[in-house]
Design goal:
elongated, alpha+beta, about 25% helix, Rossmann fold, 8-stranded antiparallel barrel
Length: about 270
């Protein structure tokens, strides 16, 4: 759940023997309190650790109003109400498989420190994150479905409650993808069926609509006033903000994105 308002607190850790000399308090989940190696991830990621009890006598160094603080899977996004050093993210990671069981590791980072850690990184061509073999359910009414060829995917046909492709956690649908050709997207937005589909998708933890076309093609659609379909699309984004629409240029790219979205949902939320 996202939180607006509140303050982000930075204090000095009064424990002289601690290797984490700073304290942080995030205004989410009743107040998450951490020890940190630095007061801000200026040049590198900052290691953090949960605080059992906020120590007495901790000197407050900074208290900044918060514009946004919300969870996204295993991450917490933090946006502060100031001009500089205002956007950061806390990543909660588990110990690697095969290592002795240990405490959860927390890293505080910004976009700048991520770029420095992985300079010149390109989009990966390896398999998407998540289980080695991803089981994707394909709606039984889907004609000419994606085959996800060349990927570690097992496809199963079933009658999905919403969407065309989905992944499950037990009996619960974890995420779904609604696939649209450009013609199908235009038809469903004009006849009013798309909002009903979005309302069902919005009940899921994660959902998305992928369109096998470019956004510019929507603007140039025949027999409608220029911009009208774009306006309807924008309204649906506002009405259903947790079900975005992605224009993926072609069927091939839409299939690739659908696979990566479903795999990411399992990796982020299926643990």
């Amino acid at each position: 759940m996202a939180h607006a308002g509140g303050t982000f607190l930075v204090a000095r850790n009064p424990d002289p023997d601690s290797s984490l000399p700073y304290l942080l308090r995030l205004p989410i989940d009743g107040g998450i309190e951490l020890k940190a190696r630095a007061p801000w991830p200026a040049t590198a990621r900052v290691y953090c650790h949960p605080v059992d009890d906020w120590p007495t006598g901790a000197e407050t160094l900074e208290e900044v109003p918060v514009r946004h603080c919300g969870r996204r899977g295993k991450a917490i996004d933090l946006t502060l109400d100031r001009a500089r050093n205002n956007r950061s993210q806390f990543i909660f990671t588990e110990p690697h498989t095969g290592r002795p069981s240990g405490r959860q590791m927390i890293f505080w980072q910004t976009a700048r420190t991520v770029r420095r850690a992985r300079p010149g990184q390109r989009a990966p061509t390896r398999r998407a994150p998540g289980p080695r073999t991803l089981t994707i359910e394909v709606d039984s009414r889907e004609r000419y479905p994606y085959k996800f060829a060349g990927r570690d995917v097992e496809c199963r046909r079933s009658a999905l409650p919403c969407g065309d492709y989905a992944v499950r956690l037990g009996d619960r649908v974890l995420a779904a993808v609604e696939r649209k050709t450009l013609e199908d997207y235009i038809h469903s937005i004009v006849d009013g069926s798309l909002p009903f589909a979005l309302s069902e998708l919005a009940t899921l933890p994660s959902a998305i609509v992928v369109v096998e076309a470019r956004y510019s093609q929507l603007l140039n659609a025949p027999r409608v006033q220029p911009g009208w379909l774009a306006e309807l699309t924008a309204r649906l984004h506002v009405r259903y903000p947790n079900v975005p629409t992605v224009f993926c240029d072609s069927r091939k790219l839409a299939e690739d994105f659908a696979h990566r979205f479903l795999a990411a949902a399992v990796a982020e939320q299926g643990a």
